[in-house]
Design a protein that fits this description.
CATH superfamily: Homeodomain-like
CATH topology: Arc Repressor Mutant, subunit A
CATH class: Mainly Alpha
Structural class: mainly alpha
Largest sheet: none
CATH architecture: Orthogonal Bundle
Order of helices and strands: HHHHH
Number of helices: 5
Helix content: 55-70%
Shape: elongated
Number of strands: 0
Oligomer: single chain
Distance between the termini: 25 Å
């Protein structure tokens, strides 16, 4: 996992700069590989990162997991997590 994912301002432009490619090249190559735009790909990675943090028990609260995985609020995190995994973060792993 990238150390940049927790930064909620880290987006496609920052990813392109980090990889030393143009924004257009990033879009083209990432779409060819994944079928996703860079923004959509990052939105896919963040819930996965949160799931791993929940499994590891790294943080004592759901709010801390939300912020550590790049979400701007625990409510947004809960909504995305429920949509993605079919259960609330507090129910995960029970």
């Amino acid at each position: 996992m990238t150390p940049h994912l927790p930064d909620k301002t880290f987006g496609p432009d920052a990813l392109a700069a980090l990889l030393l490619v143009s924004r257009r090249s990033l879009y083209r190559h990432l779409y060819e590989l994944t079928g996703l735009t860079p923004g959509a790909w990052l939105r896919e990675l963040r819930p996965d990162m949160a799931r791993h943090l929940l499994e590891a028990g790294t943080y004592p609260t759901i709010a801390e997991v939300a912020y550590a995985s790049g979400f701007s609020s625990p409510s947004q995190f809960g909504r995305v997590f429920l949509e993605r995994f079919g259960c609330r973060p507090s129910e995960y792993g029970r």
